Amino acid sequence: MARGEHSPACARRWREQAASRQWTHWQTAQAIHGCCGVSLLKAHRLARGWSARQSVQELEELCEHQNLGEARASIDLLNAWENNRARPRPQTIDLLARLYRANAVRLGLAGDYCEDGGGAKVVVVSGGEGRSPYQAEERERSEDDIERRALFHQALLGSRSVMTGRLLAEVERTRQDLDRTLAISTVSEEQLDRLDEQVMRYRREYISSAPVPMLYRLMLELSDVRTLSLTRQPAMAQRRLLNATVMLALLSADALMKLGDTRQAHAWYGTARNASDDMGDVRLRALVRAQQAMLPYYYGDLAETVRLAREARMLAGSAPSSPAALGAAAEARALARMGEHKAARVALAEAERIFARMPPEGHDHLAFRFSERRLQFYRIGTLIELGEDVDWKPGPTSPSEPYAIDPVLILLDQAAHLVRDGKVDDACHLAEKALLQVPPEHRTSIVLNRARALLSEVPQTRHRVAAVRRLNDLVIGAAPVS
Questions:
Q1: Angle between helices 406-420 and 445-456 (to 10 degrees)
Q2: How does pLDDT run along the chain (482 residues), one tens digit per residue?
Q3: Rounded CA Rg of the chain
Q4: Which stretches within 185-321 are classed as H helix?
Q5: How far does the chain reach from its first CA to its final CA, in angstroms?
Q6: φ, ψ for residue 207 (rounded to 5)?
Q7: What's the CA gap between 290 and 281, in Å, rounded?
Q8: Where are the alpha helices (DSSP H) in 101-234?
Q9: Pure H helices in 22-162
Q10: 114, 216, 327, 337 — which has fewest CB within 10 A?
């Protein structure tokens, strides 16, 4: 397994998914190539579940049965071809195409290299003129981007609420392409006024938008950002471009967190960190850490939440700001759940003190803006974890007040504490009420996992209680958007 590749288990999961959804070998290979960081040639082998030895044996048997001559291949040669350390001869490419029932383009072997009259390297593409390796690579990237954008456009137009494996693989490929672009670009800034406006619009709409279609739209926007990043821009313009990259990557990470895809969420937070670190803006770096702190909070690593929250506060410095307030509030909530009540109260008081000193920013309904409403959610969540009686009921939503997932999660926290106090009926009634107010397109893993965790705490002797059965049936029937 080459460096950076996923383990064979990842490809095995794609094969299982492909079998259940009746994908072709080519569709399976595309998903593995996009997700697992392997070459197209290797993806074709993994799509069939073959080892390198088995693939060589299959090639030898093919040549023997079809009288194609001797297959000049070995495990070492196949590994070199798959990891781009060597290139098979044209005759071998034809044999591999027969073996995998794919043309050279789909094997990633469509071009070959030769010397021109002046000794320069050119790429000879079947049916086309010679191009430099750089030109060929850029053309291939352009074609990939066009195909990827068309895929997300098609998904949006179809109003699809469930992400397919192919779409998930393209989400991962978009992030990998962006990371590569950040690595080779000129760490400055780029952006037009339109991009700034688009990012602000996404931050406004994200709060009330379902995560799946929003993720598709973000991928389309990030494709544009990546195209702009390929060209060196003036320093101020490049700075705005990196800022947009951070915001769009954070929105993507948060959407994936809601969908329960923790691996991709972690990776997208990493991309946001790379961009913010390149930009050098300490407040933006603090914002990324503060937002990332909620991923381990919701998925079980409270110590990591505290670490990231404290790192965010350290980067934010003494000036009152959204990242500083969010960092303190996130730390308070995690410490309270860990049972460190005194430290949690200190952190919560610090969050309230920072917020009181923050200058008015407007746009309360804006992603990553630490508003009074958001402070209230963190305060109530912390007090619930501290075991205090909180008489709180979320107000009704209205067209002027966008839907948010936070009130539902707080109600489920309240219900979990009622279970621990032995009030099973009350807990299940409250949890049922919380789930019923979640629109289907927002019924993601982050919500249903909390409800399942609550049910797991119900004593075995109470499982036949009507309220428990009703809640369990609701959870089973509420298929998550994922």
A1: 10
A2: 566 688 888 889 889 888 887 888 888 888 888 788 888 899 999 999 999 899 999 998 888 888 887 777 888 888 888 888 888 888 888 889 889 988 887 888 865 444 344 443 333 333 333 344 444 445 555 556 767 777 787 777 765 555 667 777 788 878 877 776 665 544 334 445 778 888 899 998 888 888 888 998 999 888 888 877 776 666 777 788 889 999 999 999 999 999 888 899 999 999 999 999 888 889 999 999 999 999 999 887 899 999 999 999 999 988 899 999 999 999 999 999 999 999 999 999 999 999 999 987 655 578 888 888 889 889 999 998 898 877 666 655 443 344 467 788 888 888 888 888 889 999 899 999 888 888 877 888 888 888 888 898 899 888 888 989 999 888 887 655 55
A3: 26
A4: 193-206, 211-229, 235-258, 262-279, 282-292, 294-298, 302-316
A5: 29
A6: -60, -35
A7: 14
A8: 133-157, 165-184, 193-206, 211-229
A9: 25-36, 40-48, 52-65, 75-82, 90-100, 133-157
A10: 114
Amino acid letter, residue 44: H
Measured in residues, the chain has a length of 482
Separation CA 262–CA 438 (nearest Å): 21
If you ran DSSP here, which 8-state letter would residue 83 be given?
T
Assigned token pair, 429: 């009634």
What span, in angstroms and rounded, lies between the C-alpha atoms of 187 and 462? 59
Contact 412, 436 (CB under 8 A): no
Q: Which of 397, 394, 434 is nearest to 412 (CA)?
A: 434
Find out whether 430 and 415 touch, Cβ atoms under 8 Å: yes
C-alpha distances (whole Å) from 446 to each of 271, 295, 311, 409 are 22, 10, 25, 9
Residue appearing with tokens 């119900």: 458
CA distance 148 to 280: 31
User: In this structure, what token pair is assigned to residue 170?
Assistant: 């393209």
C-beta of residue 281 within 8 angstroms of C-beta of residue 272:
no
Q: What token pair was written down for 149? A: 């954008």
φ, ψ (nearest 5 deg) of residue 225: -60, -40
Tokens of 384: 């619930």
Q: At what angle do helices 165-184 and 8-21 cross, to 10 degrees?
A: 140
Q: Encoding tokens for residue 88?
A: 């098979």
Structure tokens at 69: 């001559």
- Cα(8)–Cα(46) distance, rounded to whole angstroms? 8
Q: Distances from the Cα of 30 to the Cαs of 155, 161, 331, in angstroms? A: 17, 22, 41
- Which residues pair with residue 399 across a beta bridge? none
